[in-house]
Amino acid sequence: MSKKPSLQEHRFASKAQFMAYMSKALLHEMRDAEKTANSNYYIKANQTQEQLIERTTQAEREKFLNEIEQQAIIQVSPENQLKAKLANTLVSSKAYKLLSGLKQFQLVGDIMESQAISY
User: Taking the domains of the chain in order of start, what are their residue ranges?
Assistant: First the structure.
């Protein structure tokens, strides 16, 4: 349950001790039991970037891409125009994956320099 090295070495002498420990741990769990019992329940911290993108709804993707398009209208710059063109040209799932993964994005002459977010 814990990633702390001191707690990973913990051993239980019997099944009864383990069950007593787990019952106390789960009793004080802060997540709603009805939600965690659902088969669609997942913890975002345990998901990879690809799994998170798969779980985003189409509406969330469209909202993100629309914000990029609005940014290109409000602040006219070559970078924003390129982002908006990518958002409009690519399939929404690919555009979302590409644009949400950019940390730094700039144009130097005719060359795009970017730095992706590392997870």
Answer: 5-46, 54-116
State the Cα–Cα distance between residues 95 and 23, nearest whole angstrom. Answer: 45
Say what the alpha-carbon torsion angle 65, 99, 105, 107 is, to the nearest 10 degrees: -70
Encode pLDDT of 51-82 as tens digits: 776 667 777 888 889 999 998 899 988 888 88
User: pTM higher than 0.70, yes or no?
Assistant: no
Helix ranges (H only) for the chain are 5-8, 15-27, 33-36, 49-55, 58-74, 78-89, 92-100
Which residues sit opposite 102 in a β-bridge?
116
Alpha-carbon distance of 37 to 24, in angstroms, equals 18
CA distances to 2, 8, 28, 51, 91 from 58, in Å: 35, 40, 35, 14, 11
Contact 72/83 with Cβ under 8 angstroms?
yes
Q: How many residues does the chain have?
A: 119
